Every structure is written in structure tokens, then in C-alpha cells.
Amino acid sequence: MSLLSTLGLSIRAGTRCLVEDVHFSLAPGDRLGLVGESGSGKSLTALALLGLLPPGLVASGSVRLAGQQVIGRPDRQIAPVRGAVAAMVFQDPRAALDPLMTLGAQLAVPIRRRAKAEGRRLSRHDLRDRKIAALERVAIDAPERVLAAFPHQVSGGQRQRVAIAMALACRPQLLIADEPTTALDVSTQAEVLALLDRLVREEGLALLFISHDLPVVAGIAERVAVMAAGRVVETGPVAEIFSTPRAPYTQALIAAARRLDDALGLRR
Ligand SMILES: Nc1ncnc2c1ncn2[C@@H]1O[C@H](COP(=O)(O)OP(=O)(O)OP(=O)(O)O)[C@@H](O)[C@H]1O
Fold this sequence. Notes:
Elements: E1 4-13, E2 16-26, E3 31-36, H1 42-49, E4 57-65, E5 68-69, H2 75-85, E6 86-89, H3 93-96, H4 103-117, H5 124-137, H6 143-148, H7 156-169, E7 174-178, H8 186-203, E8 206-211, H9 214-220, E9 223-228, E10 231-237, H10 238-243, H11 248-264
Parallel strand pairs: 3-8, 3-9, 6-7, 7-8
Antiparallel strand pairs: 1-2, 1-4, 4-5, 9-10
The chain binds adenosine-5'-triphosphate.
């Protein structure tokens, strides 16, 4: 059974259609990249998958998450499915983190929620051990210091690592990562991508990785869906999309990536 499947997913703001007729599916452990230029509808698609569209936007069609229909269901019915199955990492970890709470207090929230779902009570000692283990899992040096810090007191890369640790603390089956490295400098981007790649592999997670950057997507996903102007224009295995892109928009994306490689002297 698919973990996530969409069929004819459309999103409207009044009479304006922002996303149209999107369909794809993810089985447990699959890694799908959703690529497209800014404004093509990637983020709205991701939000609609979890029933998290902002007010004023309306989704139609079908989204099934772990067998449950998301579209048209009230949030109180979707929230437990969402919490048990999926977690999301965003472009700007500052938006996902509370600036007035220490990172340790924020990390405690999903750890406690997970323990409660498993019917366990955590002692202060257990909670601390789990917080440290969660930060070690995302390769944070000096976890004690990071737990005591507020978000502005650590680097952008460390903030994103904490956000990833919080997402994984829910023990999801599916991780949705929306431009998770775009706000980071180039060397930190590479480190966070390598970390995500390792964690997804080790935990056997399904991954929906969203980016405007086709080479980045190609490095982490097995299949790619290319979006342009609110529609999926092409879907296929990464190697096939690179070697024989059919849609003119995909051809242009690949040509642009190759020109950049040439300019940087990365291709011979
Ligand atoms: N709340 C909203 N109300 C109306 N239109 C919106 C709203 N949010 C997004 N849009 C519009 O929907 C379209 C798709 O936006 P979306 O954020 O999904 O694009 P994206 O591909 O994720 O782009 P980016 O990479 O820049 O985040 C854009 O034209 C955007 O302006």
C-alpha cells in the first residue's frame, strides 16, 4: 500500500487555480524529488498533502496519507494521522523554531508527544538522555550547549539540524523536506544534505524532497516529479529525466544546470 498518494490534486485561491491535477505516490522507503521554479506550486502541494494549507486556499481531488483521505476532512481528524506518519522540515528553520524558547525545551515537545503516544512517561533523566541522543543523531557537537541555547545563539546549519532532530523525534515514516538547504551557505548545504541522506537511509524513511535545484534533487531522490506553472509536467527515475528529458521545461532546467557546471569548471 502507498504511504502517500495524490490523484487530481488541485488548489485554488478563489477562482485562481494555483496547482492543477497533481498526481504521484510514495511507498514506504521511496524518495521522490519535487522540482520546479519559484512559484510553480511545490510548497502548496506539500502543505496540501498534510492538510496544512493556509486559510483561503482550497484543495480538491484526493490525497491519501497512510490510507486516510486528507482532503475535505476536519483538522481534528487529520492531525493524529499527520502526527503519526509524517514530519516536515522547512527552508528557514527560524520560522519553525520559537525564538523565545531554548532549543532543548522545543526538542522536548515531539519527544514527549511520541512517548505519550507509546503510553510511556518519561522521567527528567530519560527526557534529557533522549534529547542528547536526538542531537547526536544529527551530528551536533556539544549537544549540552545547544540544548541550553536559544535559536539565535546557534548557527544556521545547527538550527536546521535541530529542526531535523525535532522532525525525526516524531518517528515519522515520511519526511517532507521543503528546500531544507536553500537558506544555508554552500558547504553547510552539502553537510545537511549528506546528513538527510544518511538519516533517511538508516531509518528507512520515505522522503519527499522539494527544491528548485535539479542537481541537488538528483543527489538525494530516486524519482523526480517536475512542476511548472502548477502542474507536474514530467515524472520519472532521476537517471532517465537527466538523460532523456521530454518536457521542454525539464530540458531547460537541465541545460541551465549544465551551463552552471561548465561555468564553475565542474564538468569535463
Ligand atoms: N496563501 C496564498 N494565497 C494566494 N496565492 C498563494 C498563496 N500562497 C502561495 N500562493 C501562490 O501560489 C503559487 C505557488 O506557490 P508555492 O509557494 O507553492 O510555489 P513554490 O514552487 O513552492 O515556490 P518557492 O520555491 O518560491 O517557494 C505562487 O504563484 C504563489 O504566489
